Amino acid sequence: MSRLIIVSNRVAVPEAGKTAAGGLAVAVNAALKGRSGVWFGWSGKITDAPSERPEVSDHGGIQYAVVDLKEDDHQEYYNGFANRVLWPILHYRVDLAEFHRADLSGYIRVNRNFAEHVSKIIEDDDILWVHDYHMMPMARYLRELGHKNRIGFFLHIPMPPPELIQTLPRHGEIIGALADYDLLGFQTEGDRDNFGRYLESRGGQPTADGKAYDIGGRRVRVAAFPVAIETESFARRARHATRTHFVQDFKASLGDCKMVLGVDRLDYSKGIPNRLEAFETLLRTAPEWHKKVAFVQITPKSRTDVPEYGEMDRFISTKAGQINGDFGDVSWTPLRYVNRTYSRSALAGLYRSAQVAMVTPLRDGMNLVAKEFVAAQDPEDPGVLLLSQFAGAAAELGGGALMVNPHEIEGMAASLRRALEMPLDERKERYQRMMEVLLANTIDHWAQSFIDALTAPSRPDLPKSASRTVPVRSTPMPQVMGWHGLQRSQDI
Predict the structure, then answer these.
(1) What is the rounded average pLDDT of the residues 110-122?
(2) Which of 59, 285, 362, 406 is deepest in the core (most CB within 10 A)?
(3) CATH assignment of the domain containing 424
(4) 363 burial via Cβ count (<10 Å: 0-12, 13-18, 19+)
């Protein structure tokens, strides 16, 4: 059996007594299950001298190959181009992108360097699976080094329409380089179609079946592979977590209040300020819910070197304090804003304890919090999921979640009230619809579907979701809004 080489920005090398909790780690472990493979990427270390060869270790039959980065490489490639240019543009936030040629040079330099390191460990029959926006041009550089292996790419975040992609200076060298892969996977059919339209704008020709494009003498296949979770094991984790002292003490601290829960990394794409304003609107317009509901927003800080994130943290902290000051008293704190990371088990227990989860990003690739919340619920007394129409999960969970527009504050407040007051029969019915979806598309099924498509013959039958039925059309430019959904960030 050929080896599977996974390439990503960071590698979660196992540590004694610790379990890798990130969504990418779960996905990679599913892909490598029962298969010989290597996971390559950055070690997370900043050093004075670059690595001459990857540092390789073996854990549980999986090889981990990592390299270090120099400080300027990390600043330009990661903090600069990846997170201050690609991240905002791919999340439809062109107004927040800050392009510098030095950062683009660093991004290209690190990707070439990674390709050279990967080249040292590739064997002729290996297949490669590259992950996410940090590594978009990887296949191009591997092709330049002479490798003809099957190489696939999966984008974990959104792919905007070509009108926005083309705002990226020299976009053909970065996003256009995705055409050097054999298979491109996206979270949703909308993301897939957006990239297809981008290829057509660059002269790409769709095949008759609409599953691939011919461009630059190559054929690249495209498909939607909505990423999944370990549904049954996460449900078990949630059941067990409710018996822990942490969850029991937390529930006791709420008293008789119903809990509304938000769990998001600190990022302007998550719509946290809009969510707080919706909760504030509920308290202002429905005083009968005073002292009967508590909103818990768990938001670990991230990318603290990027100024926009510090500005957003200050805004959210101020807003949380203002809500508590306006509506709380000595016996009731309406909102708890927590900046720390919890284990997957602790989060599973919190999900199961919540009556409502607000998963309301302004734009998201998938959002696995939505799926984990559903999987964690008690089937006999499930909570309600409020889900943004702009989350990738909406395509799968829209039949059971209460769908909301995160830019419409009053509408979100009304949906939140409906969720808190929803009768048990309706909650059960909605939960069952969503669980059917989660059980049909598990993380193992997701990984195997991608690998099967990548290793299939040159004219494969891709997943049903890959059929491109939407005709080529012009897409209007979406309204560009500030990170709190009401005004541009520079006006805050």
Answers:
(1) 96
(2) 406
(3) 3.40.50.2000
(4) buried
The question of whether 74 is a catalytic residue gets the answer no
pLDDT tens for each residue of 34-90: 888 999 999 999 999 878 889 999 988 889 999 999 999 999 999 999 999 999 999
Q: Among 182, 364, 407, 484, which one carries the catalytic annotation? A: 364
In this structure, is residue 486 part of a structural domain? no
Question: Rounded to an integer, what distance in angstroms lies between the CA atom of residue 10 and that of residue 197?
Answer: 30
DSSP run (H or E) holding 447: helix 443-455
- Write down the catalytic residue from 74, 117, 134, 156: 156
Residue 72: name the closest of 39, 100, 38, 41 by CA: 100
Same domain, 218 and 301: no
Prediction pTM value: 0.90
Q: Does residue 189 share a domain with residue 285?
A: no
364 has catalytic annotation: yes
Residues above pLDDT 90, as percent of the chain: 82
Residues 485 and 271: beta-carbon distance below 8 Å? yes
3 state DSSP class of 160: coil
> Lowest mean pLDDT: which of 224-233, 308-317, 443-452?
308-317
